[in-house]
Amino acid sequence: MTKIVGIDKLQRKLSEARRAVNELNGDLGTVEFNPHDAASIEAAIQSVNRLGSRFNHIQNAMTAARATAERKLAASLS
After folding, report:
1. What is the mean pLDDT of residues 37-57?
2. Which of 20, 29, 40, 63 is the Cys-Cys partner for 34 at CB 3.0 to 4.6 Å?
């Protein structure tokens, strides 16, 4: 029988990624603005930047979980 060491850490990373995806509920967010108001446009740009940061965090968590799973699998097969 093959034993994969560190499976608990992998499960934590996958749980973090799952929680992050569930928070999205299908949407990253909504941005509304007044196209005739420079301050409103600037605020919308900042909102989009924050949404992008949130998406990057989720993407990074999922990438890390996948990489960890691949390393664990490769180690268990060697």
Report:
1. 86
2. 40
